[in-house]
Write a structure and sequence with these properties.
By secondary structure, this protein is α/β, with parallel strands linked by helices. The chain is built from 19 helices and 21 strands. It has a five-stranded parallel β-sheet with strand order 3-2-1-7-19.
């Protein structure tokens, strides 16, 4: 830490914008005064509540005044080292900032996420195993996105030989592929980063280019780029008896075969764009493309544009393209629930950057507060209450809410829509979903979407599409919507995990033929009959309301590294998940998803397959996922 920016004016300006609950805990570190967290004023970390946790303005002012004196004294003393707090005190500070007296079961989990002592709770050491054994065991990582980069870093740290392949021409996965206007992350950026590589993000929810640069830089800094083969797609992989996979790939120089002792699939769930089955789709004479396959520099100025779909990508794209188009017509099947966040497009101010980077421990506590609030904080509001009548009124179609808390969430979200478009009754009716909140993917915005819908050159249409013709779109009512460009924001083949690769297991059975559109895995990571094949972001590891997918990937890679340690340390060629363990786990997952809003039988979404089973989502707490992936239980596997 340096003193170049620690002027009195800088300190005063920064503290005026401080997140007071995080500041209070930082002051405990700086002063040792535990009375700061033992008073009557305690924050309540509610996602839709006061961002200062309900702390009174008077107490906020007192804390800021105290902080001015403490930070100036810390500067004037030459920035002395601070003693590490005891684990008992940290637990008390965790309880304070979450506003909850947490069960001891949360202790180690939250301490690991907080990283107050700079340990790396997701690193699995293989240092006690012979270097030659680690070097001779080779792992193929498929995908160089967020999870693939993470897996490569952990393999390199452990001294295990590996190769990464990716079908794209660059690293970054979804942030390399998705380049449509307005593309940005919808998890708070301070939680959407590796635990070992926090970032000084420019915005609270950063755009695609910033995220891509982050993953590109991490790959470079950790020295894994030399082990990545880009523009190389896996065609098929076949398991052989001796714990060996033979993998056929197609790269710039044609097809070749790689050999690996284990495979880590890091291809994600949402990577193969889905176009809707609409009559005449291929007859349109103008440009037509999916948002995930955005054409380089498309000329949209002054054009009549049809956007089909109102999911996440269309939601982000429409407000941007409407600025230059002559007309944008948006076709909506069902509206999304929208959580309004005033900071969704906001930059992080210089004062907030200073707090995060300069004030000891403040950044750790702020990230932790974001992690908790956007993690476990909302889960209770989307659980089903079997006694709840979620269908009041004779005119309702299906459930409108799944519990009293979910109904309260519905009221909060509906009020947000009313604030934005309530003076336009027709538009308001189009923008309020009839299904329970979290029944489908909830979107984040600061009102950008609703303001776009109110533009004179934007129209939201709910009249279903009958067909596409050379001139545009015809609706079921017979209306012709003329278009120069059609953009599909229609999602992905979510249930076709690992598609279109062909993976043949130990009995020669191809995985996707075995799964069909009903993918299942134990812990979302391993499948019976496919030894030494591991998945990141596999079946039922998608998160709806609680947490960042980066957290899930870190848990999954930790578990996979534990599996590799069992194999290499035991000089065992293969481990295969037991069928009974796998089946019992999936029964639990299915029951859990039926108890959540997204399991509502009347709701269609990409979370479900064609039979209505939720194939994507994790229905439990982050703590439960963290615990179940801490290390593999050898009794869950048959070893060869």
């Amino acid at each position: 830490m340096t003193d170049t920016s620690w002027s009195d004016a800088t300190i005063d300006a920064a503290l005026a914008e401080a997140h007071v609950p995080s500041l209070i805990n930082a002051l405990v570190h700086l002063t040792g005064d535990v009375s700061l967290i033992r008073g009557e004023e305690r924050p309540a970390s509610e996602l839709f509540g006061d961002p200062q946790g309900g702390i009174s303005p008077e107490h906020q002012a007192a804390i800021r005044a105290r902080a001015v004196a403490v930070l100036r004294a810390h500067r004037d003393a030459g920035f002395p080292d601070l003693p590490a707090p005891s684990p008992k005190l940290v637990k008390e500070m965790v309880d304070f900032i979450t506003g909850v007296e947490l069960d001891d079961a949360y202790g180690e989990f939250l301490m690991s996420e907080l990283k107050i002592f700079d340990e790396d709770p997701y690193r699995v050491s293989l240092d006690d195993l012979p270097e030659s054994s680690r070097r001779d065991f080779h792992v193929l990582v498929i995908g160089a996105g967020m999870s693939g980069i993470l897996a490569a870093i952990r393999l390199k740290e452990a001294g295990v030989s590996y190769t990464v392949v990716d079908k794209n021409a660059g690293v970054g996965g979804t942030w390399f592929e998705n380049r449509y206007p307005g593309c940005r992350v919808d998890s708070p950026n301070h939680t959407y980063s590796y635990s070992f590589a926090p970032e000084d993000w420019p915005q609270h929810f950063s755009p695609q280019r910033v995220l891509l640069e982050y993953f590109e830089r991490i790959a470079t800094e950790h020295g894994i780029r030399g082990d990545i083969r880009l523009s190389t797609e896996v065609l098929e992989a076949r398991y052989e008896d001796a714990g060996t996979w033979r993998v056929k790939v197609r790269g710039p120089d044609g097809e070749s075969t790689l050999t690996a002792n284990a495979i880590i699939s890091a291809v994600g769930q949402l990577n193969r764009p889905k176009l809707p089955e609409i009559d005449g789709r291929d007859s349109f004479r103008g440009p037509a493309f999916h948002t995930a396959q955005w054409q380089a520099e498309p000329d949209l100025e002054g054009k009549r544009i049809v956007v089909i779909g109102t999911g996440a990508s269309a939601f982000q794209t429409v407000p941007e393209i409407a600025k230059e188009a002559a007309q944008v017509t948006v076709f909506q099947r069902t509206p999304p629930w929208v959580s309004l966040r005033g900071d969704y497009h906001a930059p992080i101010t210089q004062a907030k950057h200073w707090l995060l980077n300069q004030v000891p421990f403040y950044g750790k506590w702020y990230r932790f507060f974001m992690f908790w609030t956007t993690g476990e904080g909302l889960l209770s509001m989307v659980r089903r209450d079997p006694e709840w009548d979620g269908n009041p009124g004779e005119d309702s179609n299906g459930e409108r809410s799944v519990s009293a808390a979910n109904d309260q969430l519905r009221a909060l979200l509906t009020a947000s829509v009313e604030r934005m478009v309530g003076d336009d009754p027709a538009l308001f009716a189009q923008c309020v979903p009839t299904y329970p909140p979290a029944g489908k993917r909830m979107l984040i915005d600061n009102g950008h979407w609703f303001r776009a819908l109110r533009r004179d050159n934007v129209e939201l249409v709910t009249d279903p599409i009958a067909r596409i013709n050379p001139d545009g779109v015809e609706t079921q009512s017979g209306r012709q919507v003329h278009a120069d460009v059609i953009i599909y924001g229609t999602g992905f083949y979510a249930s076709r995990l690992l598609f279109p690769m062909k993976l043949f297991g130990k009995d020669g059975r191809e995985l996707r033929e075995h799964w069909g559109d009903d993918p299942r895995a134990y812990l979302g990571i391993v499948m019976p009959g496919y030894p030494n094949l591991f998945c990141c972001y596999g079946p039922n590891t998608n998160i709806v309301v609680n947490g960042s997918i980066v957290f899930f990937s870190e848990c999954e890679v930790r578990y996979i590294m534990g599996c590799l340690k069992l194999l290499i340390g035991g000089e065992l060629p293969a481990m295969d998940c037991r069928r009974d363990v796998h089946d019992a786990y999936n029964e639990r997952i299915d029951a859990g998803n039926l108890g959540m809003a997204w399991g509502s039988p009347d709701v269609r979404s990409w979370y479900k397959n064609e039979h209505g089973r939720v194939t994507q989502n994790w229905p439990f707490t982050l703590l439960e996922f963290w615990n179940q992936t801490r290390e593999p239980n050898p009794e869950d596997f048959d070893f060869a």
